[in-house]
Each structure stands twice: as structure tokens, then as C-alpha cells.
Specification:
Number of strands: 4
Shape: globular
Number of domains: 1
Helix content: 40-55%
Radius of gyration: 16 Å
Order of helices and strands: HHHEEEEHH
Distance between the termini: 25 Å
Number of helices: 5
Structural class: alpha+beta
Amino acid sequence: MKKCPYSQKREAILAEAISPVAAELRLLDASDLISLLRFECHGSLVDLVASAAELYFLPGTVNFGLGGDFRLDWDSQPSITLDLEIRPQGVTIYAQLTLQAEEAGVSINHIAFENPCEDPEANTAFLVESLRDASFIKDFKCLTGPVFREDRAA
């Protein structure tokens, strides 16, 4: 996705929202995830992502996007990237979740709003509300923390 001024904010919001899912996936052995990616066992990856997401989101909100990659060298820790499709009400987000030994990260490839507003800030606020409605965790820090509040006040 071509980065724009509000991309970083949206990625931070999404990262916070799916961080519990990433934490669940990081409990899996990296070699198992790499094997599933290498041998294109997409059905198993669909099940693993769905199982990790079902604890935190409504069914069908976070899905494996049938793709991924890994980096496994002799001199570094493994890094696994999973394509995700996140579909809260009114928004479709295509993202890549990168899992590493001590951390995880997310990058949005494309985001589509069903009824986009002319104001990007309104779309970002809708994204937060949509993720909150689809999540069993309602108190995202990004609603009150610096990621959301600083740009909201501007």
C-alpha cells in the first residue's frame, strides 16, 4: 500500500487490536509455522489463525489470507509473515502480520471502507469503532492514548 499521512496511525490501531492474536500465534513453535507455510498447508494455517482469533474477536473477523513467508537463516532468529484478512463490520483490511522471537508487527497492504467518508480522520475513527465492535476487548489504548488522541486534537 502506498503510505499516506494516516497509514501509520491505522497500522498502530490495527496492531493494538490484533496484538492478543499475535501473542497467541507466537505460542506456536516457529518450525511448525514454517513447515505449514513451506508445504502450503493452508487449511491448517486457517484453523490456527481462527483458533487464535476466536478468543478475542467475533467469528470471521480475523482470517488467514492464504499466503505468507518466512526468513530462516543460520545467523538470525526466524521471522514468519502471515497474510491476514481482517473484516470488522464495514471495513476490509489486508495486512501482513510478522512474528519474531520477541515481538510482532503489522503492515497494512490495503484497506477498504464500505462507505468511505471524504475525511480520512472520520474513516480512521470508524476503523477504531468497527474493530471495537468486533472485539471482545473493548478498551483499546489507542482510543485514549497518544496514538489516537494526538492526531484527533489536531
